[in-house]
Amino acid sequence: MKKSPASAGPGAPGDAPGDALDAGFVARIDAARGAGADDPDGRERVRRILLPRIAADSTAHHLTLPASDAGWKPFGPGVAIKVLHEQGGVMSYLLRLDPGAELPPHRHPIDEECVVLEGEVCVGALRIGAGGYHCGRQDVLHDRLHSPGGALVFLRGAAPRRAHVLG
Fold first, then answer.
1. Do residues 153 and 101 make contact, with C-beta atoms less than 8 angstroms apart?
2. Are the C-beta atoms of 96 and 119 separated by less than 8 Å?
3. 143 close to 124: Cβ distance less than 8 angstroms
4. 7-48, pLDDT tens digit by residue?
C-alpha cells in the first residue's frame, strides 16, 4: 500500500514541526479507513480518534482569563471597568459599582447586553438583581444607571467611552 502524506511520518515534506502524526495514530486511521467508506463503525472510529485531538490542538486559540483583581481601571466616581475582550469595536467587560455609584443617562451606538452578576443595579426605576438581564437598545436614551448597594455586572456592546455618557 502506498503511504499517504499523513502516514509518511515525522519530517515529511510540507510538515511543520509538531504537525506530524505518530505512527500508531496513522495506523488506527488507516485501519478505520480500510473498513470501507460505507462502514458507519469505521467512520465513528475515525471521529473518536480525530475530534478529541483536533479539539485539544484548538484550545490554545481560545481566550481564557482567570478570575483575579488585576486589570481593573477607574471609569468614573465609584465605578471601575475591567476589559475582558475587544474585537471590531465590540467589547466584553465587567463594571464594578460601589454602593451609591451611578452613570448618567446615555446612548449606545449598538445594542448593549448586561447581566448582573452580584448585587443590584437600577436603570431609572427598573431594578435588576443578580442573574437579571438587560439589553440597552442602540440609539435609545438609557436612563440613569445606579447601584444602591453596589454591584458587579458583565456587559457586551460598543467599547464604552465617557463621551457616550451625557452629563
1. no
2. no
3. yes
4. 444 444 444 455 566 777 777 666 666 655 566 777 777 777
For Cα atoms 19, 24, 25, give the angle at the middle one, nearest 5 degrees: 50
Report the pLDDT value the prediction gives residue 7, as an integer from 0 to 100.
42
Report which secondary-structure segment, H or E, holds 71: none
Cβ partners under 8 Å of residue 144, min gap 6: 102, 103, 104, 105, 123, 124
With a cut of 50, list the residues of the chain below it in pLDDT. Answer: 1-16, 162-167
Model confidence, pTM: 0.62
Which pLDDT score is estimated for 52? 73
Q: What DSSP state is assigned to residue 159?
A: P
The single-letter code of the amino acid at 12 is: A
Select from 118, 143, 147, 144 the least CA-distant residue to 130.
Answer: 118
**C-alpha cell at position 149:** 448597594
Report the distance separating Cα 108 and Cα 97, nearest Å.
Answer: 19
